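Q: Give me the 3D complex with pyridoxal-5'-phosphate.
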Amino acid sequence: MNTADFSLRHIGPRTADQKQMLETIGVDSMEQLIHETIPDGIRLTSELDLDAPMSEQDYLLHIYDLSKKNKVFKTYIGLGYHPTIMPAVIQRNILENPGWYTAYTPYQAEIAQGRLEALLNFQTMITDLTGMEIANASLLDESTAAAEAMSLLFSVRERDQKKAGINKFFVSEHCLPQTISLLQTRANPIGIELVIGQDDNFDFSKDFFGALLQYPGKHGQVTDVKSFIEKANASQIKVAVAADIMSLVKLEAPGKFGADVVVGTTQRFGIPMGYGGPHAAYFATKEAYKRDIPGRIIGVTKDANGNRALRMALQTREQHIKRDKATSNICTAQVLLAVMAGMYAVYHGPKGLEFIASAIHNKAVTLSNTLQNLGFEQINTSFFDTLCFKADAKKIKAEAEAKKMNFYYPNDNEVVLSINEPTTLEQLNKIVSVFAKSVGKDSIEISKISETNAIDKQLERQTTFLQEPVFNSHHSETELMRYIKQLERKDLALNHSMISLGSCTMKLNAAAEMLPLSWFKWGKIHPFVPAQQAKGYHAVLKALEDQLTEITGFAGTSLQPNSGAQGEFAGLMVIKAYHESRGDHHRNICIIPSSAHGTNPASAVMAGMKVIVTKSTEKGNIDVDDLREKAELHKDNLSALMVTYPSTHGVYESAIKEITQIIHDNGGQVYMDGANMNAQVGLTNPGNIGADVCHLNLHKTFAIPHGGGGPGVGPICVAKQLVPFLPGNPLVKTGGDQAITAISAAPFGSSLACLISYGYIKMLGASGLKKSTEMAILNANYIKKRLEGAFETLYSGERGRAAHEMIIDCRPFKAHGIEVVDIAKRLMDYGFHAPTVSFPVAGTMMIEPTESESKQEMDRFCDAMISIKHEIDNISKDNENNLLKNAPHTMAMITDDEWLLPYTRQQAAFPLDYVRDNKFWPSVRRVDDAYGDRNLVCTCAPIEAYMEEV
Ligand SMILES: *Cc1c(COP(=O)(O)O)cnc(C)c1O
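A: Here is the predicted complex, encoded as structure tokens.
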């Protein structure tokens, strides 16, 4: 074996296995299989034009060399991003631990209690610090969270406000520039009018339904949110506050003043800046708005034995159920980052956070006093960590950069500085010397940090926080390490067994792709540093854009969207801008097939489009006649078609070129949902099938780990006519020359995570990528064949083949009283995570093994499925007391002295031989979703609850 060939590590089946698998399927060669799978008319005729594949060793040297092109200055820019100290125990045991980063979104709650608990901690931390009643388990970044707050307040406008057409939203000019840009993107299409102004002289007119404040403001002034909220409430104006999480340790919680929503980022809690992300944003609101909250909420419920268990709550709000009526399009969020930020609070506890926040504040006060002694005027009258000085910005900038420091310069006469956790006394003195030199004075030496307070008394924090036991128990490294391990052991991730999630492509996240994420020269770069300091990033991001443009067969790429759903919204907004540039302001119809993912219709509505659903044929394909009819009917207003390819049914529709042509003939653009790109790379591409734009889920196809529900990266790739409209950023030049406003807070989205996909493509090269696609198709067809007779595949291509995934029909088992979820839960007893359940067809499972799974692992999975089928055959409909309905079985059940079930303990817990060697124990019995939704609890129990029990 050529040990320098990364594809041999990335791809599961060995050469000998591949031969056997092809035989099982009944084809002579891989070429024959691909020929029978992909329609001839869309195959690529040449290899992708990419760099030759690199060995892991060479890649690590290469990415190390590139990292050296980034210049790590001491950075005081602020604006929503700060240097931090990530506790090493969190870095090693979470960020660098596949037990955490390879987990899937916790839909199968019984084998996800660890990360569900970590996320409940996160929610509790947020509700405590913000003073709100309920919080979600993360959004994509602060600016999108602010936009979600605006949307929520818009949709909960009181009925008479709605009737009166009240649609104005006030945005304080203290808000971050990237947030204002993003609000513009999101407001226009849904009919919200933004008014940007000073909060001091806002007139609280009845024309406004809501307002957004920044706390503290972008230049550091702690605005009087208390009086603003009081006045706003008196005028029926609802208020959202974008609050800095660290400052909330010292500042009174906005919830105490009556805020309706509080949002922000948790990057400051130990997460590296990573040139813009990924970081978890938070969203907290009142209980009354619980059904309008975007994103995922973790809630407490009970299991089949009445024991406490956690699961995702209120899912009926979400896009996968509500589609075009959903509260938002959020699907992938920032789970891994939320877990880490929550763990930072667990590690430090309230006293540690108080120490850190006070130290930041004291350093800021000391610097402010010293510079004032030097004769500089500091404008902020009440501040936490950020100072705004009157000074000659040009001179200071030159001095500061010479000393390897970055400040923020809003104009020629002001210099803004944000103090952070790692700032030292020595660094404060360096800052002072820069200011002194700029006016030709001698520096003043700071020898001691002052402890005076510069926060307005009215706004000083009085409310306690993080009193729950979990935040007061794990403060030594040994304790935290064990707590993290205890949670990890409850979760099934890719380091235990295959997670064959249809549409989600849970492939290998190679260690060599992940390692650079821990390196300082990638982590410690602020997204708004001058370009010369981020040359390493620019090299990687530009190369990744080019790689993705080549792979999709398009003309340009934007890496800005930080999830697939965000990519959809971005792509549709780009299409809208294109139509408008041609005077077609009225084009607002978006045709979406009924089998589409829920994010598609939800994104179309956010983009101000009207959704028209087209039918599927009995074979699961798009009904071309119905599509043509609808496209022609709406040809004057047609904006776009959203289509997934291969379809969510796991089929390469051969009519795809005809379909894209129909849309073009009627004046529309074609948006391809690229979630299934793993079935295309190197064999065909969106450009080839006639699409105009697609998003890619780098966290599916391009090896970014799922993280338990994020981070994601959802770049859009576009054809030539759409390149000018790729999204921009107000502070850093990016995007097209007629760029739409921001889609994400950071100019290049979650840059740090982009390293993974870059490495993936670099190490596989054109040949390895193509081979991976072929192997993904081979693996899927192998499973399809092996399950034949036990589970029937619902849809196949014209020549009888599946694509890279297939839907198996579980509806016939209803005759035995068995539902698809019973099979999903029973798989846990066999040590497997279920495939996708009931998407896109209710009562089915969608299996996607990916190229990374070996034949042995797929055989174990198929053996488990077939064994479950035998179990079903022996079940009678009238008796619910059976192996499937009781699944999953916990260790507590199996080891109980009493055993009254009508099958043996062996059958329950060790149904096949292989299970014995690698048993995974679900930590709770089946969870009760309905109970939890009726009795919603979304935070850890306070200490009093524990005291009562005692
Ligand atoms: C995953 C997925 C999406 C949404 O992507 P996110 O990154 O989760 O927002 C959209 N469409 C399809 C078909 C998907 O599988």
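A quick observation: DSSP finds 32 helices and 24 strands in the chain.
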